[in-house]
Design brief:
Elements (H helix, E strand, L loop, with lengths): L10 H9 L3 E6 L5 E4 L1 H7 L3 H4 L4 H4 L4 H14 L1 E10 L5 E13 L2 E9 L9 H11 L2 H10 L3 E6 L5 E4 L1 H7 L21 H13 L1 E10 L5 E13 L2 E10 L1 H64 L3 H13 L3 H29 L6 E4 L1 H17 L3 E6 L6 E4 L2 H15 L10 E9 L2 E8 L6 H6 L17 H11 L3 E7 L3 E9 L22 E4 L3 H11 L3 E4 L2 H10 L6 E5 L7 H11 L1 H5 L1 E5 L5 H9 L4 E3 L4 H8 L4
Helix pairs in contact: 1-7, 10-11, 10-12, 10-17, 13-14, 14-16, 18-19
Length: 656
C-alpha cells in the first residue's frame, strides 16, 4: 500500500493539519517553545501564530508540580503521554478544559513534540537554533506525520477518482478495525453502512462541485460488520497532478447515545402524561360498570331466590289452572346459570380493564412513595410465591439466592413489582404444557457494591429488532393476549429511581436473560412518616361527589339511602354550607371540571376543618402537577378507581 511518504510534496500534510478540528501545536523539545500552530489553535485559543511562537505549554496551563513531574517522566521515557481534563487559558481569559496527547519526533537530529488538544490549547517560542530548524521542519514530512499519528480522530487519504485508500493513521485503524495493510483491499464505500443512499450521493456531489463536504451523525461500518456513528469532514486537494481526498472522522457514538437517552426520557415523560390521562378516562366508566355489576349480581341472586320460590309454589299447587299459570311465569324467567356465567365474564373483563389501567397509572405515577428497608431475597421469594402456580405448567423452576445479602433502602413494594414483572415475562415466553423441557431460573448475587437479581428463561427469545424495542413503553408482542407493553418500562423506571439499571440479552429460539442491578446504597432516605392512616371514625351517612353521571347513578343504585350523591364540587359546597352536620364522611372525586376535589378540600379546611379531615379521595389518575403535589401533602385516604365495593361499604360502617 502506498504511504504518505510517497507523496510528491507536503501539501497533503499541510491541508490535513489545517482541516483538523483539533488544536495542533508543535514545540521544540529542549525549550518547550511552540514553533508551529494550525488554524484550529488560532481560532479556538484566540492567540495569533506570532503570539503562540513566544509561548510554552506552561503559559497556557498551570499543571500541578507532581502532575508535571509524572508528565515529563512519561514523555521522556516513552516519547508520548496524555493528560485528561487539562485547564487551558484562552487569550480572552477563559479557561477551557481539554484532553492533551503528546508525542516526540525528530527531524535531522532536532527533537520536537507534537501536542494535540481536543476543545482548546496554546503554544510557545523558539531559540535562534530552533528558528533555523523551523524552516526545515515546515518542509519536512516528519512534522506532519507526527501530527497525523498523534491525533485521536481517524484520518484517511483516498484517491478522488476511484476511492482507493492511500494512507490511514493509527486512529483510523483502531476506529474501523482494519490493519494498516488491509486498507489497500477496500474502497471508500466500504466504510458506509448505506453507500448508495441519498446522503452519500450528496456527499460525492459536494466534493465534486465545492471541493469539500461534511456529514454529521453518519452511520459507518467497521471491518467486523459492527456499526457506529461519526462526524465526517472531507477536502479535495491536488498533489502533483493527482487529486486526493482527506477525510477526518470523529466517533460520536457516545454523543448520540446521550442524546438518544435525553430524547427517550422526554418521550417517556410525554407518554407518562398521556398514560395517566388515558387511565383517568378509562377508569370512570370501568368504575361505574363495576359498581353496577355489584348491583346486578345482587339482583341476580334475588332473582334466583324468587324463581326458586315460584317453583316451590308451582310444585305445591293442586289447582291445574293455577299451576299452569305459575309454570308459564317460570318459562319467562331467564336462565339463571347462563345469567350467572355472563355476569362472571363481565366482571372478569372489568377486572382486566382495571389491571391495564393500574399498569398505566404505575407507569405515570411520580408522587412520593414510602421508602423502607427491603430484603432483596425476601422480595424475590414473595414474588415466586405469587407466580409459582403460573410457572409450574410451563417450566421447571431453579432458584439460587445468595445468603447474607445486605438490606437496601427501597420504595415499598417496588422490588417485588420488578421481580413479578420479570417472572410474568419469562412465563409468557414459554409455551404451556412443556414444563419438563423448559426452565426458569432466578438468582441473586452480590458484586462489590451492587446487587443483581437475574431471571433467565428458555423461552422463544427475541430477535435483534424486538430486543431493541423491548423497553419502549407500550411495545408488546403479546397484544392478542392482553399484553400492555409496560412491564420492562416499569421495571427500568423503578430501577433508575433506585440508582440501578436493567440489562437484557436474548437469542431468538434460545431464551432471554434479564438482570436487575441495584446499588447497596440506593441514595434513598427512609421515610420518617408512615403511610397515610385511615380515618378512625366512620360515618353512617356519606356525601359522594363525582362529576361523571354514570358514576352518580351507580353510587345511588349501590348505596341507596346511606349516601347523598351530587355531580359537582360546587353543589357539594352549597349543601355543606346549608347542612354542615348532615354528613359524617365525604367521598370526593379528585379530578373534576370547575370546582375539583382540591378546591373542595381547601375551602372546607378554611371553613369546616373537621369535614376536610373526613374527606376520602378517589381518582382514576392524578396526572396534573397540581393534583400530584396535593396528594403528596395531605394525610387523607386516597382510593384508586375502580373502587372496590367492599371498601365503600366499610367506609359506611361505624366504629363502636
Amino acid at each position: 500500500m502506498a504511504r504518505l511518504a510517497a507523496l510528491e510534496d507536503l501539501d497533503a500534510y499541510r491541508a490535513l493539519v489545517d482541516a483538523a478540528d483539533d488544536v495542533v501545536l508543535i514545540a521544540d523539545w529542549k525549550t518547550a517553545r511552540f514553533v508551529e500552530a494550525n488554524q484550529a489553535a488560532v481560532d479556538r485559543l484566540g492567540y495569533s501564530r506570532v503570539e503562540l511562537s513566544k509561548m510554552t505549554g506552561g503559559d497556557l496551563s498551570d499543571l500541578p508540580r507532581e502532575a508535571h513531574r509524572r508528565f515529563s517522566a512519561e514523555l521522556t521515557a516513552t516519547g508520548q503521554t496524555q493528560v485528561r481534563d487539562l485547564p487551558v487559558r484562552c487569550r480572552d481569559g477563559r479557561r477551557v478544559r481539554m484532553d492533551l496527547w503528546v508525542r516526540r519526533f525528530e527531524i535531522d537530529g532536532v527533537a520536537f513534540h507534537a501536542n494535540v488538544l481536543r476543545e482548546s490549547d496554546g503554544p510557545s517560542p523558539g531559540s535562534e537554533a530552533v528558528q533555523i530548524a523551523r524552516s526545515r521542519l515546515l518542509e519536512s514530512e516528519a512534522f506532519y506525520r507526527g501530527v497525523v499519528t498523534c491525533t485521536q480522530d481517524a484520518v484517511v487519504v483516498t484517491q478522488f477518482e476511484d476511492g482507493a485508500f492511500v494512507e490511514a493513521n493509527p486512529a483510523a485503524c483502531e476506529m474501523f478495525r482494519y490493519s494498516s495493510v488491509a486498507w489497500a483491499d477496500i474502497g471508500c464505500d466500504d466504510l458506509f453502512s448505506a453507500p448508495g443512499d441519498e446522503t452519500c450521493v450528496t456527499l460525492r456531489r459536494d466534493l465534486a462541485e465545492r471541493g469539500s463536504a461534511e456529514l454529521i451523525d453518519v452511520e459507518l461500518v467497521r471491518a467486523d460488520g459492527t456499526r457506529f456513528y461519526g462526524d465526517l469532514r472531507q477536502n479535495v486537494f491536488d498533489n502533483g497532478g493527482r487529486r486526493l481526498i482527506i477525510s477526518i472522522v470523529r466517533d460520536v457514538s457516545e454523543r448520540r447515545r446521550q442524546r438518544e437517552e435525553v430524547e427517550r426520557a422526554q418521550r417517556l415523560a410525554a407518554v407518562g402524561e398521556i398514560a395517566a390521562s388515558i387511565a383517568h378516562e378509562v377508569n370512570n366508566p370501568a368504575a361505574y360498570m363495576l359498581l353496577n355489576q355489584t348491583a346486578l349480581d345482587d339482583a341476580s341472586r334475588r332473582g334466583e331466590r324468587f324463581v326458586a320460590a315460584v317453583r316451590r309454589l308451582a310444585d305445591a299447587e293442586s289447582d291445574p289452572s293455577r299451576r299452569a299459570a305459575l309454570e308459564a311465569c317460570l318459562a319467562l324467567a331467564p336462565d339463571a346459570e347462563a345469567m350467572g356465567e355472563a355476569a362472571r365474564d363481565n366482571r372478569d373483563g372489568l377486572e382486566r380493564i382495571r389491571a391495564v389501567t393500574d399498569d398505566l397509572k404505575r407507569f405515570s405515577r411520580r408522587e412520593a412513595v414510602e421508602v423502607v428497608v427491603e430484603d432483596v431475597n425476601l422480595a424475590v421469594t414473595q414474588s415466586l410465591g405469587l407466580m409459582r402456580n403460573e410457572l409450574r405448567h410451563r417450566a421447571e423452576l431453579a432458584v439460587s439466592l445468595v445468603e447474607d445479602l445486605p438490606t437496601i433502602h427501597a420504595e415499598r413494594g417496588k422490588l417485588g413489582q420488578v421481580v413479578t414483572n420479570l417472572l410474568v415475562n419469562a412465563s409468557q415466553a414459554i409455551v404451556e404444557g412443556r414444563a419438563s423441557r423448559n426452565c426458569v431460573s432466578v438468582s441473586t448475587e452480590r458484586h462489590g457494591e451492587e446487587l443483581c437479581i437475574a431471571v433467565v428463561d428458555t423461552g422463544v427469545g427475541m430477535s435483534t429488532d424486538t430486543l431493541t424495542r423491548a423497553r419502549d413503553p407500550f411495545f408488546t408482542t403479546r397484544a392478542q393476549d392482553g399484553g400492555t407493553g409496560l412491564g420492562l418500562s416499569l421495571c427500568e423506571d423503578i430501577l433508575r429511581r433506585h440508582g440501578g439499571r436493567l440489562e437484557v440479552s436474548s437469542e431468538l429460539g434460545r431464551g432471554t436473560r434479564v438482570e436487575a442491578w441495584l446499588p447497596v446504597d440506593t441514595g434513598l432516605a427512609l421515610s420518617s412518616v408512615p403511610s397515610s392512616p385511615r380515618p378512625k371514625r366512620r360515618g353512617r351517612h356519606m356525601l359522594v361527589i363525582d362529576d361523571d353521571m354514570g358514576m352518580v347513578r351507580a353510587y345511588r343504585r349501590l348505596l341507596g339511602g346511606r349516601a347523598t350523591v351530587v355531580s359537582s364540587g360546587r353543589e357539594a359546597l352549597e349543601r355543606l354550607a346549608r347542612e354542615p352536620r348532615a354528613y359524617d364522611l365525604i367521598l370526593c372525586d379528585l379530578m373534576m371540571p370547575d370546582v375539583d376535589g382540591v378546591e373542595v378540600y381547601l375551602r372546607l379546611r378554611a371553613s369546616a376543618p373537621h369535614l376536610a379531615k373526613s374527606m376520602v379521595f378517589c381518582t382514576g389518575a392524578a396526572f396534573t402537577a397540581r393534583a400530584q403535589a396535593f396528594l403528596a401533602e395531605i394525610d387523607n385516604v386516597v382510593l384508586d378507581k375502580p373502587v372496590d365495593c367492599e371498601i365503600l361499604f366499610s367506609l359506611l360502617e361505624e366504629d363502636g
